[in-house]
Amino acid sequence: MKALKYIALFTSLFAGSALVVSAQTTPVQKQRTHLIADNSSTVLTQDSSKKTTKAERNALKAADVKKLIESKQFTFHARYANPLGGGVMSLNGQLINISPQGTGHIYLTSDYDVRIRPDSVITFLPYFGRTTFAPSLNPTDGGVKFTSTKFEYDAKTGKKGNTVITITPQDAQYNRKMILDIADNGVATLQMIITNRNAISYDGFIEEI
Questions:
Q1: I need a labelling partner for 130 at 20 to 30 A (CA). Which of 45, 61, 95, 204 fits?
Q2: Is residue 145 within 8 Å of residue 127, measured between CB atoms?
Q3: DSSP 184
Q4: Among 164, 125, 179, 165, which Cα is nearest to 147's?
Q5: Distance CA 146, CA 124 (A)
Q6: pLDDT (tens digit, 0 to 9) for every residue of the chain, 209 residues total?
């Protein structure tokens, strides 16, 4: 009986000491905890620096775009054409749908642009849409292609901080007005208002000539 009591007492003492040991934090565990905390703060610092870097890049891009606009010397590259009323064009007196599902949003596979300088505007764009009457100069030319050296240039700041440039050529037949809406990242939309054709717009971006 005494032997059994000694065994029970020893077992209870051993269990109690084990609990005390497990409840205590060893120096190694403390070091691991500090390392984990340090690593977490490092990750947070890296994430915040990445966000700051992205914001700085956006600010630099906006500054570059602003300089281009103020210089009045840049190129608008057209990537999409948006005909009024869908993507149709006239061929031998018949209207043909040339856009996917008639959406009027046409991807341009060739290089089309508008080069703007203080003394000239050179436009080389395609046209999709309805023509009210045939142009007298070149009936086979279906694009919007002209060079203007006499034009009005007006730039204003829009409600969302974008820049709206209105160019009114005075020596380009049928081409009445060009409205270029530029975001601070350089993405732009150009609307062409033409006398003998339905209006059309183009999506693209601007960059240095």
A1: 204
A2: no
A3: T
A4: 125
A5: 7
A6: 545 444 444 455 444 444 343 445 555 555 555 544 555 555 445 555 556 788 899 999 999 999 999 999 999 999 999 987 655 554 444 445 555 555 578 899 999 999 999 999 999 999 887 766 555 445 445 589 999 999 999 999 998 889 999 999 999 888 889 999 999 999 999 999 988 788 899 999 999 99
